[in-house]
Amino acid sequence: MSAAKTFLYMLMMTALLVLFGQALDIAFGGGGMYLAIFGGFSIVMNFVTYWFADTIVLKMHGARVLDESEAPGLHAIVDRLVAQSGLPKPKVCIVPTQIPNAFATGRNPSHAAVAVTEGLMNALEADELEGVVAHELAHIKHYDMLLSTVIASMAGLIAMLAGWARWGLLLFGGRRSGGGNPLHAVGAILLILFAPLVAFIIRSLISKQREFAADAGGAKMSGNPAALASALRKIEAHAQRAVVMGGARMGSEAAEHMYFINHFSFGRGMGRLFSTHPPTEERIERLLAMGREAQRSYRGVKSY
User: Fold this and answer.
1) Host domain of residue 123
2) How many domains does the chain have?
């Protein structure tokens, strides 16, 4: 995803938040107060997210920066991949949990971090670990980290505010404004009711696109789609076991969109509409198809 498209999506979510503020003005007779508050709040949120997202996310997970002497193999993987991709080397961090997972954070490729868990280091072979790291570096290359943080923050904020607004409508009713036009009031109430749904659908659609693109970019960067598919299969199996057994999970649902695999839910049917990740089996099949296509191309060149 290009930097221009990233900022376009950020503007779209900002506009949704501002429209939500205007809907509150119409429903509760705020006289422009809510519009001004949410417009200003969106600017502050974008600023804080841009400058401090990486610090906040790393501290939230208890991650610490690894120097090369602590994890020479992991640093060698990162060095090899950034040399191939032309990216600056990000901070390399470890998260103290036995749950196998990974994420990337930061506002741009020059200010980024890749974090892996202790469980991931223990669960995967070297080529599989390289595939996961390449996937996260692809997120960095596509400017996904900033977008995902802003969208998740705004979606969560809209959901929280909508809950308050619904209670306000239920307990106190709404006061029509906008020239007393009842259609304006009805439209405002509908926006209050459905804005969280729209926000989470947008978050889900963008997140799924990001994951497919990062899988493809990571497979191309590492040159081994099968290893990345194998890593997906192993991590998915671990996450499924953890859910069945009621085991601990990494971080919180607020950050689920950032992880290599979302271990908080494995929705089926309508549940997949709101999932932050595509179905793992579909991700694996796409990667294996990439590998088959690469083999066909190689055999074609060799025979030529």
Assistant:
1) 3-297
2) 1
28 within some domain: yes
- Rounded to a whole number of angstroms, the CA Rg of the chain reads 22
Phi-psi region of 113 (alpha: psi -120 to 50; beta: other; left: phi over 0): beta
> By the 8 A CB rule, do 48 and 101 touch?
no
Q: 0.85 cut: is pTM over it?
A: no
**Sequence-ordered strand ranges (E) for the chain:** 64-65, 91-95, 102-108, 111-117
262 contact partners, CB below 8 Å, separation of at least 6: 256, 275, 276, 277
Distance CA 297, CA 304 (A): 11
Q: Is residue 217 part of a domain?
A: yes
pLDDT tens by residue, 191-238: 677 777 777 777 777 788 889 999 999 999 999 999 999 999 999 988
202 near 196, Cβ under 8 Å? no
Residue 286 maps to a domain: yes
Q: Enumerate the active-site residues.
A: 136
